[in-house]
Write a structure and sequence with these properties.
Elements (H helix, E strand, L loop, with lengths): L10 E3 L1 H13 L3 E5 L10 E4 L10 E6 L2 E5 L1 H7 L2 E9 L13 E9 L18
Parallel strand pairs: 1-6, 2-5
Antiparallel strand pairs: 2-3, 4-5, 6-7
Length: about 130
């Protein structure tokens, strides 16, 4: 695992995400997360059986959520290394090969700058045309 600049965990999860993770672990006890794509908030980490996913040589272990290891690709780590990833759950379908698929909920990645306490890529406000 890598250290964050502030000593805060690099990845955390909401209570809803931890509850959903517990549900998935009842069916698949040995799993891992991998964040390989997406460049900002709203991307989906993939959840795999640990025996069916090979962690790459350049993947970085950010930490664990709910006792489950969480990895990110090396290139994504370079983009997000100044942020804390916050794993949440929202309605929808998970990725085709992710264990959250077919459960009508999916994991979602949010982020915030270390030490800021605020989301980095929050949903932008819609701009209104000036009158």
């Amino acid at each position: 695992m890598t250290e964050s600049p502030t000593g805060e965990p690099r990845v955390i999860a909401t209570e809803a995400a931890l509850d959903f993770l517990s549900e998935i672990r009842r069916d698949h006890p040995d799993i891992l997360f991998h964040q390989s794509g997406g460049c900002c908030d709203g991307s989906s980490p993939m959840c795999y059986p640990a025996s069916e996913y090979r962690v790459g040589e350049t993947d970085v272990k950010l930490g664990e959520i709910g006792g489950v290891p969480f990895y990110i690709s090396g290139s994504q780590y370079e983009v997000w290394k100044h942020t804390q990833l916050i794993i949440d759950v929202v309605p929808g379908r998970g990725g085709m090969f992710s264990l959250d698929n077919g459960r009508e909920r999916r994991f979602l990645t949010r982020s915030r700058l270390f030490g800021s306490g605020e989301a980095v890529c929050g949903i932008p406000a819609l701009s209104r045309p000036e009158k």
